[in-house]
Design a protein that fits this description.
heterodimer, A: about 170 residues, alpha+beta, Arc Repressor Mutant, subunit A, 3 domains, two-stranded antiparallel sheet, 5 strands, about 10% strand, B: about 550 residues, 5 domains, 5-stranded antiparallel beta sheet, 14 strands, RNA_pol_III_Rpc82_C (chain B), RNA_pol_III_RPC82-rel_HTH (chain B)
Chain lengths: ~170, ~550
């Protein structure tokens, strides 16, 4: 008669619904959440990996191109819409795997109308390119990543002379 | 305004090189801005003679500048109305340059050779020298003839690495006259100049005089008086206007002191940073093309923080590329391909009607973003890295749940990370309170927005019931200031730690090499490695400081 449904925004409380109804994506969270209301991290990573592979093959791709490729291939059983792929491409940009740029209609962007948003993978195989992201100057020393830097003073309890992070860093 | 740790770092540099007394005077100027001699004496509680000597040292080494503000005097230094008082201002940027001498030497020696480099080293060590002093020094060190020395000096001046020193006590007009003049000619809002910038703008000789050196064998006179020498017995005394007029006339006739031109050297280092940034993002070929563009457009650049280089044609760029023997194998098409890649978004090179110009602002911002993201990733983790990139690109307030959705992270973890970043000053936070009924609105409301019959109130105080949401944002300007202050703090810490290590091991350092055995040798080797690591970290960190402070 009734079934329990998960509300991703309020997992602490139990929610019930008649069996003949389907819960909306506002309750279930949509394609990115599993039946228990948890983020389906594995599925998301798979979709990200596939999208990245496609973009690397094409060198430059628009959202529509990526959507079309997956629709025709039928790789995913889940019903992924355009906004799902937009979210995935957005996540790849935040991961620094791809760049979001506007086409200037020239060179490798020749096939894409000028001004259209497209995605370009970083070419880590290029000769002379860095294999791993560079660690900045601050990040390569203890103070740059120290959680106590605001309490650090020359003569205080936390100081460069007594700092344990410095001690470890200078162990040869 | 110099940050707290910027001042501490600068004072530490001065202490190391000139001692505690000079550092005390320098700190007084850095913390209080421009002061007269009497004001410095009062605040430092040192004798006038000591303060005067400290000021002479700072001026000699270009770390301070004297000037006269012609305006009515009031307050603690009240004197006769209409009298001009000599004031002193610390030059924070020039103090920072003192750790960059090895980089400057590298630039000069690579371009002009060893003998010019040696002459330049003397100018860095002594701050400023007359031609006679330069010749005497070269003669004593390397037995160079006067003609050779003057030739080398001429090369350095021609390349703009050396300049004629600024006027010792320029007359600085009031700010109102300056601002109005600039506002009239410019339709774009212009940031007002700081006092330091105004003083140096007036003190600098004209472009012709600044880089005009005429070799003359008889130029070096033993007893020639020079008004461009740092003021000695006249430091701190009030100068009457008619005295200044006669001094100005004399200045025209007398030789000037010469010093390193930090502006040109900083420009070269900025170019180097741009080339390195492009090399990492693209490849060696793109870096070569950019380097050639910088070389070709160098003469037209008039300031360090230029936004764009002058436009260059493809032919000019190609000619510049192949000038270097190493690049003879690069074809015209290869150069064009590199330019097309650099012109693709993000556009580091702008194209306009078959000409190309470098967008320095874009390259600098890309390098700065990389540095900040590196810190965020290492300090706060991967989730914070994604959050930061999202908010930095968005440039507006975003709600916690929305952020969690965009980065595909759990809401609890997102919230925790946001708070950590906010506590360290990397994010701004605002509380949005949703109130359904007007009559329960709290009195202290920041602003209103009516949307779908609900009144949205944004406030920074406690919640008054109803739904409340936390909004987050990256304020780029404030963030850069925070990062720069942390960099100064880190640089100071590196110096202090090095001093501590040397102090802990001074017995081992004092041992003769043949007596260092067993544990002593191990300690000595460790100390050598510590010194190398800290020095190289300081150099790398200084590059980052330049990126945020000077470029």
């Amino acid at each position: 008669m009734i079934k329990e449904v998960v509300n991703v925004k309020n997992k602490g409380k139990k929610h019930y619904m008649a069996v003949e109804f389907e819960p909306s994506t506002e309750l279930t969270g949509g394609a990115w959440y599993d039946d228990d209301g948890n983020l389906h991290v594995e599925f998301i990573n798979i979709v990200k990996k596939c999208c990245l592979q496609k973009i690397k093959q094409l060198k430059v791709a628009t959202l529509e191109t990526v959507l079309q490729l997956f629709k025709t291939s039928g790789v995913f059983k889940a019903d992924l819409k355009e906004h799902h792929f937009e979210e995935i491409l957005g996540a790849l940009v935040l991961d620094n795997e791809v760049m979001e740029v506007k086409s200037n209609g020239m060179g490798e962007f020749g096939a894409i109308p000028e001004g259209k948003v497209c995605y370009k993978a970083f070419d880590k195989q290029r000769v002379g390119a860095a294999a791993e992201p560079r660690i900045g100057a601050m990040a390569s020393m203890p103070c740059g990543v120290c959680p106590r830097i605001r309490s650090c003073t020359p003569d205080g309890v936390v100081s460069p002379s007594t700092c344990v992070y410095f001690q470890k860093w200078l162990e040869f | 305004m110099v940050s707290q740790h910027g001042i501490l770092y600068a004072v530490h540099l001065i202490t190391n090189q000139f001692g505690n007394l000079v550092a005390k005077v320098c700190e007084c100027l850095l913390r209080n801005g421009a002061l007269t001699l009497q004001a410095i004496v009062r605040r430092t509680e040192l004798s006038p003679a000591k303060v005067r000597n400290c000021l002479l040292v700072l001026i000699q080494h270009n770390c301070a500048q004297a000037f006269i503000l012609e305006e009515s005097v009031s307050g603690e230094d009240a004197g006769e109305p209409g009298k001009a008082l000599t004031q002193y201002i610390a030059l924070f940027v020039n103090i920072l340059h003192r750790v960059r001498f090895s980089k400057f030497m590298d630039v000069v020696s690579k371009e002009l050779g060893g003998s010019c480099g040696e002459l330049f080293r003397g100018l860095l060590e002594h701050g400023r020298l007359t031609v006679k002093q330069i010749v005497d020094r070269a003669g004593a060190n390397a037995k160079e003839s006067t003609n050779t020395v003057q030739e080398d000096l001429g090369k350095l001046v021609m390349a703009h690495y050396v300049e004629c020193c600024p006027a010792p006590e320029p007359l600085v007009p009031p700010p109102d006259a300056d601002t109005k003049k600039r506002a009239k000619s410019s339709k774009v809002m212009v940031e007002p100049l700081t006092l330091e910038q105004r003083v140096m703008a007036v003190a600098m000789p004209s472009a012709m005089r600044r880089f005009s050196f005429v070799p003359n064998a008889d130029q070096v006179a033993d007893d020639q008086q020079n008004v461009n020498q740092p003021p000695s017995k006249d430091v701190g005394e009030k100068r009457k206007l008619h005295d200044l007029e006669s001094d100005t006339a004399l200045e025209e006739e007398v030789e000037c002191n010469w010093r390193a031109n930090f502006e040109e050297l900083l420009r070269r280092l900025r170019h180097k940073t741009c080339v390195d940034t492009i090399k990492v993002r693209f490849d060696d070929a793109a870096a070569t093309v950019l380097s050639a563009m910088l070389e070709a457009s160098r003469a037209e650049e008039d300031k360090v923080k230029t936004a764009n280089s002058v436009p260059l044609s493809l032919n000019t760029i190609y000619e510049e590329v192949v000038k270097n023997e190493k690049n003879h194998s690069m074809t015209f098409d290869h150069v064009r391909t590199c330019l097309e890649e650099l012109s693709c978004p993000p556009t580091f090179v702008k194209t306009d009607d078959e000409s190309y110009s470098i967008d320095f602002t874009k390259i600098t911002e890309a390098a700065q973003s990389e540095e900040i993201e590196s810190i965020v990733l290492k300090r706060f983790g991967e989730t914070a890295y994604k959050i930061f990139r999202l908010l930095f690109r968005a440039g507006c307030l975003m709600e916690t749940d929305k952020i969690a959705d965009r980065i595909f992270a759990e809401k609890k973890e997102t919230s925790k990370t946001l708070f950590k970043m906010w506590q360290d000053g990397y994010l701004l936070m605002e509380l949005l309170v949703l109130c359904k009924h007007l009559n329960i609105l709290p009195p202290a409301i920041k602003c209103y927005c009516i949307c779908r019959n609900w009144l949205w109130a944004v406030q920074t105080g406690p919640s008054y019931g109803g739904s409340s949401y936390l909004l987050w944002k990256v304020n780029k300007r404030l963030l850069r200031e925070t990062i720069l202050d942390e960099m100064f703090h880190a640089a100071l810490n590196l110096n202090l730690r090095l001093a501590h290590e040397i102090d802990q091991n001074k017995e081992v350092l004092n041992l003769p090499p043949d007596k260092r055995e067993g544990p002593d040798k191990q300690k000595f080797d460790r100390l050598r490695n510590v010194r190398l690591l800290i020095h190289s970290s300081l150099m790398k960190l200084d590059d980052a400081i330049m990126l945020f402070h000077d470029f």
